[in-house]
Amino acid sequence: MTSVMDAQGINLRALREQVDAVLEEFLEGKAETAAGRGHPPEVVETVRDFLAAGGKRIRAQLCVVGWHAAGGRGDPAPVMRVAASLELFVAFALIHDDIMDDSAMRRGRPAVHRALRARLGQSQRAERLGAGGALLVGNLALIWAQELLHTVELTAERRKAVHALYDAMLEEVMYGQYLDVMGTDRGDGDVEAALQIVRYKTATATVQRPLQLGAAVAGAGAATLDLCTELGLPLGEAFQIRDDLLDVFGSADGACAPGLGDLREGKRTVLLALGVCRADPQQRQRLRQLVGRADLDESGAAEVRAILEMTGAREYAENIIASRYEQVLRVLDSAAFPPDVSGALRGLAVTATQYTT
After folding, report:
1. Which of 153, 172, 189 is the last residue of a domain?
2. Is the pTM of this model over 0.85?
3. What pLDDT does residue 268 have?
Protein backbone atom coordinates (compact mmCIF):
# COMPACT_ATOMS: atom_id res chain seq x y z
CA MET A 1 0.00 0.00 0.00
CA THR A 2 1.44 3.37 -1.04
CA SER A 3 2.06 6.30 1.29
CA VAL A 4 -0.47 9.14 1.56
CA MET A 5 2.34 11.68 2.00
CA ASP A 6 3.12 14.15 -0.77
CA ALA A 7 5.00 17.46 -1.11
CA GLN A 8 2.22 19.29 0.74
CA GLY A 9 2.13 16.83 3.66
CA ILE A 10 -0.60 14.29 4.40
CA ASN A 11 -2.90 13.97 1.39
CA LEU A 12 -6.33 13.52 2.99
CA ARG A 13 -8.02 12.80 -0.34
CA ALA A 14 -5.56 10.00 -1.12
CA LEU A 15 -6.01 8.73 2.43
CA ARG A 16 -9.77 8.50 1.96
CA GLU A 17 -9.36 6.74 -1.38
CA GLN A 18 -7.11 4.11 0.19
CA VAL A 19 -9.57 3.51 3.05
CA ASP A 20 -12.40 3.16 0.52
CA ALA A 21 -10.29 0.68 -1.44
CA VAL A 22 -9.80 -1.43 1.72
CA LEU A 23 -13.55 -1.35 2.35
CA GLU A 24 -14.38 -2.29 -1.22
CA GLU A 25 -11.94 -5.21 -1.24
CA PHE A 26 -13.29 -6.46 2.08
CA LEU A 27 -16.95 -6.19 1.02
CA GLU A 28 -16.21 -7.81 -2.33
CA GLY A 29 -14.87 -10.76 -0.37
CA LYS A 30 -18.03 -10.80 1.73
CA ALA A 31 -20.17 -10.75 -1.43
CA GLU A 32 -18.28 -13.73 -2.83
CA THR A 33 -18.65 -15.62 0.44
CA ALA A 34 -22.38 -14.83 0.55
CA ALA A 35 -22.83 -16.07 -3.02
CA GLY A 36 -20.94 -19.27 -2.29
CA ARG A 37 -23.00 -20.03 0.79
CA GLY A 38 -26.36 -18.98 -0.59
CA HIS A 39 -26.71 -15.99 1.72
CA PRO A 40 -28.99 -13.11 0.60
CA PRO A 41 -26.81 -10.86 -1.59
CA GLU A 42 -28.70 -7.68 -0.72
CA VAL A 43 -27.18 -7.54 2.76
CA VAL A 44 -23.66 -6.81 1.51
CA GLU A 45 -25.08 -4.51 -1.17
CA THR A 46 -27.02 -2.56 1.47
CA VAL A 47 -23.86 -1.95 3.50
CA ARG A 48 -21.87 -1.15 0.37
CA ASP A 49 -24.51 1.33 -0.84
CA PHE A 50 -24.69 2.94 2.60
CA LEU A 51 -20.94 3.56 2.61
CA ALA A 52 -20.98 4.80 -0.99
CA ALA A 53 -23.78 7.29 -0.31
CA GLY A 54 -21.50 9.77 1.41
CA GLY A 55 -19.78 10.53 4.66
CA LYS A 56 -16.53 12.43 5.02
CA ARG A 57 -14.53 9.49 6.44
CA ILE A 58 -13.40 11.93 9.14
CA ARG A 59 -12.86 9.13 11.67
CA ALA A 60 -10.76 7.14 9.23
CA GLN A 61 -8.74 10.23 8.37
CA LEU A 62 -8.16 11.04 12.04
CA CYS A 63 -7.07 7.47 12.68
CA VAL A 64 -4.37 7.61 10.00
CA VAL A 65 -3.30 11.11 11.07
CA GLY A 66 -3.01 9.76 14.63
CA TRP A 67 -0.68 7.08 13.30
CA HIS A 68 1.52 9.74 11.71
CA ALA A 69 1.36 11.86 14.90
CA ALA A 70 2.78 8.95 16.89
CA GLY A 71 5.64 8.48 14.45
CA GLY A 72 4.07 5.78 12.27
CA ARG A 73 6.44 4.71 9.54
CA GLY A 74 6.64 2.02 6.89
CA ASP A 75 3.72 0.06 5.50
CA PRO A 76 0.43 1.88 6.31
CA ALA A 77 -1.69 -1.23 5.61
CA PRO A 78 -2.38 -2.04 9.30
CA VAL A 79 -3.61 1.44 10.16
CA MET A 80 -5.67 1.59 6.96
CA ARG A 81 -7.49 -1.56 8.05
CA VAL A 82 -8.18 -0.09 11.47
CA ALA A 83 -9.43 3.09 9.78
CA ALA A 84 -11.68 1.05 7.47
CA SER A 85 -13.00 -0.85 10.49
CA LEU A 86 -14.05 2.48 11.99
CA GLU A 87 -16.14 3.28 8.92
CA LEU A 88 -17.98 -0.05 9.20
CA PHE A 89 -18.55 0.73 12.88
CA VAL A 90 -19.99 4.11 11.89
CA ALA A 91 -22.31 2.39 9.40
CA PHE A 92 -23.58 0.15 12.20
CA ALA A 93 -24.08 3.09 14.57
CA LEU A 94 -25.94 5.25 12.03
CA ILE A 95 -28.18 2.43 10.78
CA HIS A 96 -29.21 1.66 14.37
CA ASP A 97 -29.54 5.35 15.21
CA ASP A 98 -31.97 5.79 12.31
CA ILE A 99 -34.05 2.84 13.53
CA MET A 100 -34.31 4.27 17.04
CA ASP A 101 -35.21 7.72 15.72
CA ASP A 102 -37.31 6.35 12.83
CA SER A 103 -35.44 8.79 10.59
CA ALA A 104 -36.74 8.95 7.04
CA MET A 105 -33.50 9.87 5.28
CA ARG A 106 -29.78 9.41 5.63
CA ARG A 107 -27.24 11.02 3.28
CA GLY A 108 -29.94 11.98 0.80
CA ARG A 109 -31.39 8.47 0.57
CA PRO A 110 -34.09 6.58 2.47
CA ALA A 111 -32.74 5.26 5.78
CA VAL A 112 -32.02 1.53 5.65
CA HIS A 113 -35.04 0.52 7.72
CA ARG A 114 -37.30 2.68 5.53
CA ALA A 115 -35.84 1.20 2.34
CA LEU A 116 -36.34 -2.35 3.61
CA ARG A 117 -39.86 -1.49 4.74
CA ALA A 118 -40.69 -0.18 1.27
CA ARG A 119 -39.80 -3.57 -0.24
CA LEU A 120 -42.43 -5.21 1.97
CA GLY A 121 -45.33 -2.79 1.45
CA GLN A 122 -46.99 -0.35 3.83
CA SER A 123 -48.51 -2.65 6.44
CA GLN A 124 -47.74 -2.45 10.15
CA ARG A 125 -46.02 -5.82 9.83
CA ALA A 126 -43.80 -4.42 7.06
CA GLU A 127 -42.77 -1.58 9.38
CA ARG A 128 -41.73 -4.02 12.10
CA LEU A 129 -39.93 -6.34 9.68
CA GLY A 130 -38.13 -3.46 7.96
CA ALA A 131 -36.80 -2.26 11.32
CA GLY A 132 -35.77 -5.82 12.22
CA GLY A 133 -34.00 -6.31 8.91
CA ALA A 134 -32.10 -3.04 9.30
CA LEU A 135 -31.15 -4.04 12.84
CA LEU A 136 -29.55 -7.20 11.48
CA VAL A 137 -27.79 -5.37 8.65
CA GLY A 138 -26.35 -2.99 11.24
CA ASN A 139 -25.28 -5.93 13.39
CA LEU A 140 -23.42 -7.44 10.44
CA ALA A 141 -21.67 -4.13 9.79
CA LEU A 142 -20.46 -4.21 13.40
CA ILE A 143 -19.38 -7.87 13.12
CA TRP A 144 -17.45 -7.04 9.95
CA ALA A 145 -15.88 -4.01 11.64
CA GLN A 146 -14.62 -6.35 14.35
CA GLU A 147 -13.38 -8.84 11.77
CA LEU A 148 -11.35 -6.15 10.00
CA LEU A 149 -9.91 -5.08 13.34
CA HIS A 150 -9.01 -8.61 14.45
CA THR A 151 -7.22 -9.39 11.20
CA VAL A 152 -4.84 -6.42 11.45
CA GLU A 153 -1.25 -7.65 11.76
CA LEU A 154 0.27 -6.08 14.88
CA THR A 155 2.63 -7.05 17.66
CA ALA A 156 0.90 -8.56 20.69
CA GLU A 157 1.47 -5.39 22.76
CA ARG A 158 0.06 -3.07 20.10
CA ARG A 159 -2.86 -5.38 19.37
CA LYS A 160 -3.80 -5.36 23.05
CA ALA A 161 -3.69 -1.56 23.19
CA VAL A 162 -5.73 -1.15 19.98
CA HIS A 163 -8.41 -3.62 21.08
CA ALA A 164 -8.71 -2.00 24.52
CA LEU A 165 -9.29 1.42 22.95
CA TYR A 166 -11.79 0.01 20.45
CA ASP A 167 -13.71 -1.77 23.22
CA ALA A 168 -13.81 1.45 25.25
CA MET A 169 -15.18 3.31 22.22
CA LEU A 170 -17.95 0.75 21.71
CA GLU A 171 -18.98 0.94 25.35
CA GLU A 172 -18.98 4.74 25.39
CA VAL A 173 -21.16 4.96 22.29
CA MET A 174 -23.69 2.51 23.71
CA TYR A 175 -23.93 4.45 26.96
CA GLY A 176 -24.26 7.70 25.03
CA GLN A 177 -26.97 6.25 22.82
CA TYR A 178 -28.82 4.97 25.88
CA LEU A 179 -28.71 8.40 27.50
CA ASP A 180 -29.88 9.95 24.25
CA VAL A 181 -32.84 7.57 23.85
CA MET A 182 -33.95 7.69 27.47
CA GLY A 183 -33.51 11.45 27.68
CA THR A 184 -35.64 12.24 24.62
CA ASP A 185 -38.84 14.21 25.30
CA ARG A 186 -37.78 15.36 28.75
CA GLY A 187 -37.65 18.90 27.42
CA ASP A 188 -35.41 20.21 30.18
CA GLY A 189 -32.76 22.87 30.01
CA ASP A 190 -29.89 20.85 31.47
CA VAL A 191 -27.08 21.88 29.15
CA GLU A 192 -24.47 19.82 31.01
CA ALA A 193 -26.58 16.67 30.64
CA ALA A 194 -26.86 17.35 26.91
CA LEU A 195 -23.08 17.83 26.70
CA GLN A 196 -22.57 14.53 28.51
CA ILE A 197 -24.54 12.76 25.78
CA VAL A 198 -22.38 14.49 23.17
CA ARG A 199 -19.17 13.39 24.90
CA TYR A 200 -20.19 9.75 25.14
CA LYS A 201 -22.06 9.35 21.88
CA THR A 202 -20.01 11.54 19.55
CA ALA A 203 -16.89 13.22 20.91
CA THR A 204 -15.09 10.05 21.89
CA ALA A 205 -16.01 7.95 18.85
CA THR A 206 -15.66 10.72 16.27
CA VAL A 207 -12.32 12.23 17.22
CA GLN A 208 -10.67 11.06 20.44
CA ARG A 209 -10.72 7.28 19.92
CA PRO A 210 -9.91 7.35 16.18
CA LEU A 211 -6.85 9.50 16.90
CA GLN A 212 -5.83 7.20 19.75
CA LEU A 213 -6.39 4.06 17.69
CA GLY A 214 -4.11 5.27 14.94
CA ALA A 215 -1.52 6.33 17.49
CA ALA A 216 -1.74 2.93 19.23
CA VAL A 217 -1.08 1.14 15.92
CA ALA A 218 2.19 3.10 15.83
CA GLY A 219 3.01 2.13 19.43
CA ALA A 220 2.20 5.46 21.08
CA GLY A 221 2.86 6.02 24.76
CA ALA A 222 0.56 7.52 27.39
CA ALA A 223 1.61 11.12 26.69
CA THR A 224 0.57 10.94 23.02
CA LEU A 225 -2.70 9.20 23.88
CA ASP A 226 -3.46 11.93 26.44
CA LEU A 227 -2.77 14.56 23.80
CA CYS A 228 -5.31 12.84 21.54
CA THR A 229 -7.86 13.28 24.33
CA GLU A 230 -7.00 16.97 24.73
CA LEU A 231 -7.66 17.42 21.03
CA GLY A 232 -10.46 14.95 20.60
CA LEU A 233 -13.00 15.87 23.23
CA PRO A 234 -13.39 19.59 22.42
CA LEU A 235 -13.28 18.93 18.68
CA GLY A 236 -15.84 16.14 18.96
CA GLU A 237 -18.17 18.35 20.99
CA ALA A 238 -17.88 21.13 18.42
CA PHE A 239 -18.57 18.63 15.63
CA GLN A 240 -21.84 17.45 17.19
CA ILE A 241 -23.09 20.92 18.12
CA ARG A 242 -22.46 22.05 14.54
CA ASP A 243 -24.41 19.03 13.32
CA ASP A 244 -27.31 19.95 15.63
CA LEU A 245 -27.32 23.53 14.33
CA LEU A 246 -27.33 22.33 10.74
CA ASP A 247 -30.23 19.99 11.40
CA VAL A 248 -32.40 22.84 12.72
CA PHE A 249 -31.18 25.88 10.76
CA GLY A 250 -29.41 24.48 7.72
CA SER A 251 -26.30 26.20 6.34
CA ALA A 252 -25.89 29.76 5.17
CA ASP A 253 -24.87 28.68 1.67
CA GLY A 254 -27.98 26.52 1.26
CA ALA A 255 -25.98 23.32 0.79
CA CYS A 256 -27.68 21.91 3.89
CA ALA A 257 -31.40 22.66 4.21
CA PRO A 258 -33.12 23.14 7.59
CA GLY A 259 -34.71 19.91 8.79
CA LEU A 260 -37.41 18.67 11.13
CA GLY A 261 -35.69 15.51 12.39
CA ASP A 262 -34.29 16.62 15.74
CA LEU A 263 -37.31 18.81 16.48
CA ARG A 264 -39.84 16.06 15.79
CA GLU A 265 -37.83 13.52 17.75
CA GLY A 266 -37.38 15.85 20.72
CA LYS A 267 -33.65 15.25 20.62
CA ARG A 268 -31.91 16.31 23.81
CA THR A 269 -29.37 18.45 21.98
CA VAL A 270 -27.20 21.19 23.43
CA LEU A 271 -29.00 23.69 21.16
CA LEU A 272 -32.46 22.80 22.47
CA ALA A 273 -31.24 22.60 26.08
CA LEU A 274 -29.87 26.12 25.69
CA GLY A 275 -33.21 27.26 24.27
CA VAL A 276 -35.19 25.87 27.20
CA CYS A 277 -32.65 27.19 29.70
CA ARG A 278 -32.63 30.74 28.29
CA ALA A 279 -36.33 31.03 27.41
CA ASP A 280 -38.90 33.03 29.37
CA PRO A 281 -41.90 31.09 30.76
CA GLN A 282 -44.04 31.66 27.66
CA GLN A 283 -41.26 30.68 25.26
CA ARG A 284 -40.42 27.63 27.36
CA GLN A 285 -44.04 26.51 27.26
CA ARG A 286 -44.13 26.81 23.47
CA LEU A 287 -40.90 24.86 23.08
CA ARG A 288 -42.30 22.08 25.22
CA GLN A 289 -45.54 22.09 23.24
CA LEU A 290 -43.84 21.96 19.85
CA VAL A 291 -40.57 20.02 20.21
CA GLY A 292 -41.10 16.28 20.19
CA ARG A 293 -44.32 16.33 18.16
CA ALA A 294 -44.22 13.75 15.37
CA ASP A 295 -46.59 15.93 13.33
CA LEU A 296 -44.57 19.11 13.70
CA ASP A 297 -44.85 21.08 10.45
CA GLU A 298 -42.74 23.85 8.95
CA SER A 299 -44.87 26.52 10.61
CA GLY A 300 -44.23 25.04 14.03
CA ALA A 301 -40.55 24.51 13.25
CA ALA A 302 -40.26 28.16 12.20
CA GLU A 303 -41.66 29.17 15.59
CA VAL A 304 -39.11 26.97 17.37
CA ARG A 305 -36.29 28.44 15.28
CA ALA A 306 -37.48 31.96 16.10
CA ILE A 307 -37.44 31.19 19.82
CA LEU A 308 -33.94 29.71 19.56
CA GLU A 309 -32.85 32.92 17.82
CA MET A 310 -34.59 35.30 20.26
CA THR A 311 -33.26 33.57 23.36
CA GLY A 312 -29.74 33.69 21.98
CA ALA A 313 -29.51 29.89 22.06
CA ARG A 314 -28.28 29.70 18.48
CA GLU A 315 -25.63 32.37 19.06
CA TYR A 316 -24.54 30.73 22.31
CA ALA A 317 -24.18 27.37 20.53
CA GLU A 318 -22.02 29.05 17.88
CA ASN A 319 -19.90 30.53 20.66
CA ILE A 320 -19.39 27.07 22.19
CA ILE A 321 -18.19 25.77 18.81
CA ALA A 322 -15.80 28.71 18.43
CA SER A 323 -14.50 28.22 21.96
CA ARG A 324 -13.88 24.51 21.41
CA TYR A 325 -12.17 25.23 18.08
CA GLU A 326 -9.85 27.76 19.72
CA GLN A 327 -9.09 25.20 22.43
CA VAL A 328 -8.03 22.72 19.76
CA LEU A 329 -5.78 25.30 18.11
CA ARG A 330 -4.10 26.06 21.44
CA VAL A 331 -3.37 22.37 21.96
CA LEU A 332 -1.94 22.13 18.44
CA ASP A 333 0.19 25.24 19.00
CA SER A 334 1.80 23.65 22.05
CA ALA A 335 2.09 20.11 20.69
CA ALA A 336 5.35 18.96 19.17
CA PHE A 337 3.74 17.40 16.12
CA PRO A 338 5.52 17.41 12.76
CA PRO A 339 4.24 20.22 10.49
CA ASP A 340 2.41 17.79 8.17
CA VAL A 341 0.48 16.28 11.10
CA SER A 342 -0.34 19.67 12.58
CA GLY A 343 -1.51 20.93 9.19
CA ALA A 344 -3.75 17.90 8.63
CA LEU A 345 -5.28 18.23 12.10
CA ARG A 346 -5.96 21.92 11.56
CA GLY A 347 -7.69 21.11 8.29
CA LEU A 348 -9.77 18.39 9.91
CA ALA A 349 -10.69 20.76 12.74
CA VAL A 350 -12.12 23.16 10.18
CA THR A 351 -14.01 20.32 8.49
CA ALA A 352 -15.46 19.17 11.82
CA THR A 353 -16.57 22.59 13.03
CA GLN A 354 -17.50 24.50 9.89
CA TYR A 355 -18.75 21.90 7.39
CA THR A 356 -21.90 22.67 5.47
CA THR A 357 -23.23 19.27 4.34
Report:
1. 153
2. yes
3. 85
